[in-house]
Amino acid sequence: MGVVVITGTGTDVGKTVVTAALVAGALGADRTPAVVKPVQTGVGPGQPGDVDDVRRLAGPVTVRELARYPDPLAPATAAARSGLAETRPAEIVAAVAELARHHDPVFIEGAGGLLVRFDSVGTTLADIAVALAAPVVIVARAGLGTLNETALTSEALRARALTCLGVVIGEWPAEPDLAARHNLVDLPAAAGAPLLGVLPAGSGALSTSDFVLRAPDWLHPDLGGRAIDPAAGLLTTVGDRR
Ligand SMILES: Nc1ncnc2c1ncn2[C@@H]1O[C@H](COP(=O)(O)OP(=O)(O)OP(=O)(O)O)[C@@H](O)[C@H]1O
Ligand SMILES: C[C@H](N)[C@H](N)CCCCCC(=O)O
Ligand SMILES: [Mg+2]
């Protein structure tokens, strides 16, 4: 699998929970995953960041957080306000390359969506993916509005000749509305890539043992899971429109 970039259609879409599920799948398949969060914002010193959430859900796994800025903002802005040095892309690429010597896969979780700026030069997660020639997973919302957000993200990947492995829905509601149900069918078309996972709402609050046990059922084998069609059990509810 190598290095895989986990982006999202925005912030709070479930990238961290999805990353934890990917780690659980990889550990279950006797792989040696690691997770890099190049820049963590919105978290103060000593508070748990995204990589700590990954370990809380998926269990012990090698993680690296390269920089942290407390304001809940884009990394470039949060770095500028903090007065701390911003994080250079070469530093991120080098840290990932070093981890990839002993870990497979290495997941990189961005901050917010694909084109959020990491530094004052305008470096984005897309630039990091290009530098590492890494494929990308898009984490998307379930409901109304996700088709456009996902298509925009996918188009930005294509414009950079980046490979989109597929889309994962970060939080599938217990009672999906009409838009969410149809999005199971429409998201792959919007993305030009398959739907490779659906995480149920509440999965982020599971215990480690339950999360690890269940995670493979949310993901396609291409992402280390065992669900041939992650939407299969949910698709039966789409019938009421047609
Ligand atoms: N499947 C899920 N089950 C339960 N809670 C979820 C799920 N997906 C997301 N959440 C919750 O939604 C919020 C956002 O999730 P998450 O932190 O994974 O977003 P993110 O895309 O990683 O955001 P960021 O850009 O800050 O990294 C969190 O409060 C998380 O607990
Ligand atoms: C603070 C938040 N949870 C993320 N870490 C950063 C999200 C930046 C989003 C910027 C934007 O797209 O407007
Ligand atoms: Mg996150």
Automatic annotation (TrEMBL):
Q: What InterPro entries does the annotation carry?
A: DTB_synth_BioD, P-loop_NTPase
Sites where the protein binds Mg(2+)? 16, 50, 109
Cellular localisation: Cytoplasm
Q: Write out the residues that bind substrate.
A: 41
The record ties this protein, via CDD domains, to: DTBS (cd03109)
Catalytic center at which residues?
37
What cofactor does this one take?
A: Mg(2+)
Gene3D superfamilies, A to Z:
P-loop containing nucleotide triphosphate hydrolases
| Gene Ontology molecular function | ATP binding; dethiobiotin synthase activity; magnesium ion binding
Reaction it catalyzes: (7R,8S)-7,8-diammoniononanoate + CO2 + ATP = (4R,5S)-dethiobiotin + ADP + phosphate + 3 H(+)
Please give the chief subcellular localization of this protein: cytoplasm
Family of the protein in this entry:
Belongs to the dethiobiotin synthetase family.
Q: How is the subunit organization of this protein annotated in UniProt?
A: Homodimer.
Q: What is this protein called?
A: ATP-dependent dethiobiotin synthetase BioD
- Name its species: Actinoalloteichus hymeniacidonis
